[in-house]
Specification:
Layout lengths: L6 H28 L9 H4 L12 E2 L7 E3 L3 E2 H5 L3 E6 L6 E2 L2 E2 H9 L7 E4 L3 E5 L4 E2 L8 H7 L6 E2 L1 H22 L26 E6 L2 H12 L6 E6 L4 E7 L5 H19 L10 H11 L30 H10 L6 H5 L10 H15 L3 H12 L7 H13 L3 H15 L2
Parallel strand pairs: 2-4, 8-11, 11-13
Antiparallel strand pairs: 1-2, 3-7, 5-6, 7-8, 9-10, 12-13
Helix pairs in contact: 6-8, 8-9, 9-12, 10-12, 13-14
C-alpha cells in the first residue's frame, strides 16, 4: 500500500529542492561570474586609450629671448654643442658610451664622410642615436605640433635634422608612457625596477637601452656588419652582453614617416618588454611579437607591411607575404579552418622572430589583443607570471600557471575562449 507523504515530509522535500536549486544556481552563477572577464566585447586594440592627453615635460629656459635651457626631458648632443644648456641644467645624464664603446668613437663611425654627425639624445631609460633626414612639417601629427614648436618656434615647411631628432625622442617618450599605462606601472616606483639578481637565470638590465635610426639601408647594413656581423632587412635588435642592454637598429629607407613611426613603436614595445623586470626569462616569440604588432597597429591597421628578416622567404612563407592585409579576416580564416597553433606549441616556440612565420604573427597579435581586452591589470599579471619563472620550471608549466593565475583557466581553455571571440567578433 502506497503511503502518502505527510505535510512535514512535503515541506522537507520542498526545502531540499530549494536548497539544491540555490546551491546549483549559485555554483553556476559563481562559475559564470568567475569567467565573465573572458567575454571580451569589440576590439580592445582600437578602443583602449593609453596615456590619454600625455605631453612631454616642457623645456624650461632662463628669462629672455635667448635664455638657455635650465630643464629638459632629454639631453641632446646638438643642443649641448650649440651651448644651449645653462650651467647646472637638469636633464638625463649624457651617455659616456654607446654599445659599450666610447661615444665619440661611435658617433664618428656613423658620421663617416657626412657633414653633420648623428644626434645623440639621452632619456631616463633610453638612448636615441638619430641620423634621419629632414622631414616635411606636414607629416607631423596634430598633437605633435606643440611639442616641436616649444623648442623650434619658427614655423617652417621642413623640419631639419635637429628638429627631427627631437621629434623622435618625444615619440620614444610617448611610447614609454603608453607602455607603462598598459602595464599599470609607475616608472618611479620599485615595481618597475629589475627583479633581484639571482631570482631567476640571466642578468638584470643595468644600462639604458639604445635605439639607432639610420637614414637609409646602406649605412644601416654597414654598421650592423661591423658591430654585429649580421642584420635584419629593415630593423634588428641585439642584446649587448658586456653592458647588459638591448640595442634596436632601424633604417628609414624610402618609408613614409608614419610607417617609420609605427615600426619604431613595434620595436620599442619589444625593447620595453625585454627590459621589464630585467633580462631574465626570454619569453617565447609569440608574446613580444604580439605586443609589438599591438602597438604598431594602434597607428593604422595596414602598417604590418614589413618583414624583419634578411633571409629569403622560407617555403611556408610563399603564400603569406608581408603586405597590407586585413588581419581580422586573416585570423578568422585561420581559426575557422583550425589552422592556428595550440598554445602549447606557441609556448615551446623559439625566442627568435625568425621562427614564427607570418600567419602566426596574426595569431600572436590577436591573442595579445584579446588578453588586453580583459584589463590591463590582468595583462601585467600574466607577463609577471612568465617573467618570474624559476630556473627549474618547465616552460609549459610556467605558461599554464600564468594562465591559471591570471585568467582562472588553463592555457587550452583560454585558447578555446579566444577562438570563440575570434569567430564571433572579428569581421
Amino acid at each position: 500500500m502506497r503511503e502518502h507523504p505527510t505535510r512535514s515530509s512535503r515541506v522537507l522535500n520542498s526545502l531540499i529542492i530549494v536548497l539544491w536549486t540555490v546551491l546549483f544556481a549559485g555554483g553556476v552563477s559563481a562559475q559564470v561570474d568567475r569567467l565573465a572577464h573572458l567575454d571580451v566585447q569589440g576590439d580592445p586594440g582600437s578602443s583602449l586609450l593609453l596615456a590619454e592627453g600625455w605631453a612631454p615635460p616642457s623645456f624650461v629656459r632662463e628669462p629672455g629671448k635667448q635664455g638657455k635651457i635650465t630643464k629638459s626631458p632629454f639631453w641632446c648632443s646638438r643642443c649641448a654643442d650649440h651651448g644651449e644648456y645653462a650651467k647646472g641644467a637638469r636633464h638625463p645624464a649624457p651617455p659616456e658610451k654607446l654599445l659599450n664603446r666610447p661615444r665619440s668613437d661611435m658617433v664618428a663611425t656613423v658620421q663617416g664622410k657626412a657633414k653633420k654627425p648623428p644626434i645623440v639624445l639621452a632619456m631616463p631609460r633610453l638612448i636615441l642615436v638619430c641620423d634621419l633626414s629632414p622631414l616635411s612639417a606636414r607629416m607631423l601629427k596634430k598633437y605633435e605640433i606643440p611639442w616641436i614648436r616649444e623648442h623650434f618656434p619658427k614655423k617652417k615647411t621642413k623640419l631639419d635634422q635637429h628638429a627631427v631628432a627631437h621629434l623622435y625622442a618625444m615619440r620614444c617618450l610617448h611610447l614609454f608612457a603608453q607602455w607603462t599605462d598598459l602595464m599599470c606601472l609607475d616608472p618611479d616606483r620599485k615595481e618597475y625596477r629589475p627583479a633581484d639578481h639571482g631570482q631567476t637565470w640571466g642578468n638584470p638590465s643595468m644600462n639604458r637601452g639604445e635605439v639607432w635610426l639610420f637614414p637609409a639601408a646602406e649605412p644601416y647594413h654597414q654598421f650592423c656588419r661591423q658591430f654585429f656581423k649580421g642584420f635584419g632587412k629593415w630593423s634588428s635588435w641585439w642584446y649587448v652582453k658586456p653592458s647588459n642592454q638591448v640595442a634596436t637598429l632601424i633604417h628609414a629607407g624610402k618609408l613614409k614617416d608614419d610607417i617609420l613611426h609605427a615600426r619604431l613603436d613595434h620595436m620599442l614595445a619589444h625593447q620595453h618588454l625585454f627590459e621589464y623586470r630585467g633580462h631574465y626569462y626570454h619569453l617565447p616569440v609569440w608574446i613580444p611579437e604580439g605586443i609589438g604588432h599591438y602597438f604598431e597597429r594602434r597607428h593604422e591597421q595596414k602598417f604590418d607591411t614589413f618583414c624583419l628578416l634578411g633571409q629569403p622567404r622560407q617555403k611556408d612563407r610563399s603564400d603569406w607575404e608581408w603586405k597590407a592585409r586585413k588581419w581580422k579576416r586573416e585570423v578568422r580564416s585561420l581559426v575557422s579552418k583550425n589552422e592556428e597553433l595550440p598554445v602549447t606549441k606557441l609556448a615551446l616556440s623559439s625566442t627568435s622572430n625568425q621562427d614564427l612565420i607570418p600567419r602566426y604573427h596574426v595569431q600572436a597579435w590577436s591573442m595579445i589583443n584579446y588578453m588586453i581586452g580583459m584589463g590591463r591589470g590582468r595583462f601585467r599579471t600574466f607577463i609577471d607570471g612568465l617573467k618570474t619563472k624559476a630556473e627549474d620550471d618547465h616552460v609549459l608549466e610556467a605558461h599554464n600557471n600564468a594562465f591559471r593565475r591570471t585568467f582562472g583557466v588553463s592555457a587550452g581553455q583560454f585558447q578555446a575562449r579566444w577562438r570563440g571571440w575570434v569567430l564571433k567578433k572579428q569581421k
